[in-house]
Amino acid sequence: MGFAVHCSWLAALLCLHFFGGQVCCDCTEENMEIEGGHYTLTKQLQKGSLLIYQCPEGYYPYPVMTRLCQHNGSWRMAPRRFTPQRCRVVECPDPNVMEYGEVSPPQDKYFVNNVTTYECYSGYTMRGSARRVCLPNGKWSGSTPICSRESGHDCADPGIPAGASRAGNIFGIDETVKYSCNSNLFLVGPIERVCLENGQWSGKEPACYYKHTYDTSLEVSQAFGSSIRESLTTLESLNDTQAGKTIRISKNGTLNIYIAVDISESIEEADVKKAKDAIITLIKKISSFTVDPNYEIVFFSSDLYEVVNILDFFDEKKVERNTIINILNDFQVGQKNTGTDLNLVFKTFLERMAIIKLQVGKEQFKEHRHVFILFTDGAYNMGGSPEPTVAQIKNMVYMNHTVEQEAQSREEYLDIYIFAIGNEIFDDDLQPLVTGLGGKHYFRMKEITELQETFDQIIDEEEVKGLCGLHKEYEIVGSPQVAARKKYPWWAFITIQTEGRSKNCIGSLVNPYFVLTAAHCFTFGNVPEDVKVEIEDGQGRVKKVKNFIPHPKYKINGKENEGVLEFYDYDVALIQLEEYVQISSSVRPICIPCTQETSDALQLVGVSTCKQQEELLLKNDLERVSFLTKREPRLMKKMPTLSLVGIEWIASSMHWRHQA
Ligand SMILES: *[C@@H]1O[C@H](CO)[C@@H](O)[C@H](O)[C@H]1NC(C)=O
Ligand SMILES: *[C@@H]1O[C@H](CO)[C@@H](O)[C@H](O)[C@H]1NC(C)=O
Ligand SMILES: *[C@@H]1O[C@H](CO)[C@@H](O)[C@H](O)[C@H]1NC(C)=O
Ligand SMILES: *[C@@H]1O[C@H](CO)[C@@H](O)[C@H](O)[C@H]1NC(C)=O
Ligand SMILES: *[C@@H]1O[C@H](CO)[C@@H](O)[C@H](O)[C@H]1NC(C)=O
């Protein structure tokens, strides 16, 4: 180890020549090792390189998480002789803060996998988890246990989260409770909660974090998902009887989404690609709602790279979702400057907002909602604190000239979410920047890697399960069967018995009762009992068939006298099932053109015509299409040639109303 460049004064000139002036000051690996773990370097031993310590799950690097190679060849956070770098077992915050009850076992400290149980004193009843386990991310499983008794207060006892202290014991309307964290913990979430008129506490319960506490991907997708969903829709759902489909009514107003990704040296090089993929996933997810947001997307270090300019959305030329995705995919980070200017991001967003306001006018601008989504570790070293700029942004959105009461009511028009990502996060600088009503807005993650999956889960599958064509696009881990179902959730396997021989076909679910397949799968004389459809929906794989209907114009020998032996026009058939299949994220219908479902899936606002859908879907004379084939044990995608079939017939045979 330790390949420092040592230059004697004699060799110095030569050395200078070879190393272009950087000679004297690479860092060394001396004393850098970590007991029980290892480390990675972002730029070997060059200046600006970040050394990141890694420990096995359930452990964290101590005393420091990272070290930075400085200009003069010394490490920031120099190793200390008496506290050698090692992997320490993860600790969870102290649960013995619970009132009116007992925690067992009583311990000074609680470590990963330690189990605690909770019991209330007699006369008190428990809400929350009676048993909690200390998890590898430094949090307790379940929810805060609270012992309380009927007190006649307007709000229920809000309890005390592990590691915290609470000031305030009166739970009447407009009363507040304040939280702080003990010892070396810090608070994430609201410092204060107010008992509201509806008997609920404002905001979400805060939590006490250690520097080694992280949010899991699942927590983030649930919390961020429910929050962003609120921004995306009023969740007024009508019950559509046709396919159990939820129809959303979007708010009258415009949604502007501003995304910024920190690509300064404090976040690793390879992460930029992952961040791009995550943003693309997010944009696709958002587009499964009927709202059509405008996007501003920037990457930043000391400079700002504006990948998508929101002002383009206000020009005549409407920016399409695919265009955004292509621009994002093509974006390459060139020579990066060192330094991070977080304030520049907010200043740019503020400028864009000011221009939008000028363009659309004050009254229209009032109807605009703004959602900021930032990915950074918060280690800015240029441009100063963004707090004053954020205050200006709030003024602009809240319309500060009006009275306090009204400013309050406009808080829902601005959300600032921060995904704090990294091994060394500057929570104190970042947390004051988040804003917005309701759910959690500050997320703490170790790596950007999980982000794409996190975003893929943010939209409640239950809620959009009626939406046709929605599927997972990335490689899914798990058995090939499960992976295939998630990737092609409309897929059905069909077996037809004819005179003792069985024939296999693949079909697509078009609604919970109907499967679309080829007419040539059937032979004259087949009866419904000959046909079996397999779809694993958790209700039994094999589905009984009520009826099958080949297209009336399908005639394989229809052109025999013209010399065409096998004629495959109208080669479609519908299979009607006895019982409907259970729709879920892995069992979902494919989109049929000229239907409202497809209109929604294409984000065509309101009712669209066949023509509009065709223009979007079949832009070119030749379209690349694919079909599925089953070769045990996998499902494969293949490229065929295909002719368009009688869409109207499909729709009318299923007695579907559709807009033509
Ligand atoms: C190297 O630079 C840092 C700050 O730039 C300074 O704190 C440190 O004392 C310097 N170390 C040496 C050995 O000169
Ligand atoms: C708690 O965890 C620590 C560290 O793993 C372990 O040494 C200790 O025995 C555990 N205590 C209990 C009560 O399980
Ligand atoms: C819609 O469905 C929900 C749950 O399925 C049900 O509670 C509600 O009453 C339904 N509303 C109407 C208008 O049918
Ligand atoms: C929706 O916004 C338009 C202008 O964008 C306005 O004319 C209309 O009155 C609004 N509708 C409602 C229900 O607020
Ligand atoms: C509102 O905020 C803007 C921007 O910070 C500021 O210029 C203006 O003076 C403020 N107006 C009032 C009445 O506070």
UniProtKB/TrEMBL annotation:
Signal sequence range: 1-25
Location(s), subcellular: Cell surface; Secreted
Start and end residues of each VWFA domain: 256-458
GO molecular function: serine-type endopeptidase activity
Assigned keywords, A-Z: Disulfide bond, Glycoprotein, Hydrolase, Protease, Repeat, Secreted, Serine protease, Signal, Sushi
Domain Sushi: 25-89, 90-149, 153-210
Cysteines paired by S-S bonds: 120-147, 181-208
Name recorded for this polypeptide: C3/C5 convertase
Organism for this UniProt entry: Dissostichus eleginoides (Patagonian toothfish)
Lineage: Eukaryota, Metazoa, Chordata, Craniata, Vertebrata
